[in-house]
Amino acid sequence: MNLPNKLSLFRVALVPIIVILFLTDGIMECFRIHTANGDIVFTLSDILVFVLFAVASFTDFLDGKIARSRNLITSFGKFVDPIADKLLVNSMLILFACTSRISVLAVLLMIWRDMIVDGLRMNASAKGKVVAAGMLGKIKTVLQMFAIIFLMLKNLPFAFVGIPMDQILLWAATIVSLASGIQYFIQLKDIVMESM
Question: Which residues cross the membrane (predicted)?
Answer without folding.
Answer: 12-28, 40-59, 87-112, 168-186
